[in-house]
Amino acid sequence: MNQAAPVVFVVDDDPSVSRAIKRLVESVGLRAELFGSAQEFLRNEDRDSANCLVVDIRLPGISGLDFQRELAAAGIHIPIVFITGHGDIPMTVRAMKAGAVEFLTKPFRDQDLLDAIQQGLERDRIRRTQEAEVAILRERFESLTPANGKCCLG
User: Which of 4, 23, 26, 76 is a plausible cystine mate for 71, CB 3.0–4.6 Å?
Assistant: First the structure.
């Protein structure tokens, strides 16, 4: 399993917000990559390390919630921390029911964002470990051959 350093992907169309989050994330020794839209992120293929997404709800082209749904439909399971200056309760509920780690309204405390990111990275690490274990079990199972052409499971 790849043990690359964790990456926090920030998807926000406001460059000043993205840069501030990048500085914050890097201040605790994590790597951050910035994207101005969901489409820009989807063109990125660097998803081999443990990851977490920080996504603004309002994005050009596709909303953060629709982006979350598209990722799930594509089988891309990266934990998401939503940030917004324009959130409401139904939006928060929808995001959380769909598996978001956290839903933070701007302005948020730096520590709240860092805590949510750490929780997301831990979720992703656990998921990747479980997927690797299942792959090993599947490989072992597929290597079994039936005795005399008959299944030995009874």
Answer: 76
Asked whether residue 15 carries a pLDDT value surpassing 60, the answer given is yes
What residues contact 22, with CB distance under 8 A and at least 6 apart?
10, 32, 34
Higher pLDDT, 113 or 50: 113
The first and second tokens of residue 24, run together, are 């914050």
- Give the integer Cα–Cα distance in Å for 53 and 25: 12
Given a cut of 80, whether residue 45 has pLDDT beyond it is no
How far, in Å, are 58, 73, 79, 107, 127 from residue 61 at the CA level? 9, 18, 21, 24, 30
CA dist., res. 57 & res. 95, Å (int): 10
pLDDT score recorded for residue 148:
54
Q: What's the alpha-carbon Rg for the chain, to the nearest Å?
A: 19
Give the position of tokens 């089988």: 75
Residue 76 contacts by C-beta under 8 Å, 6 or more apart in sequence?
Answer: 47
Amino acid at 20: A
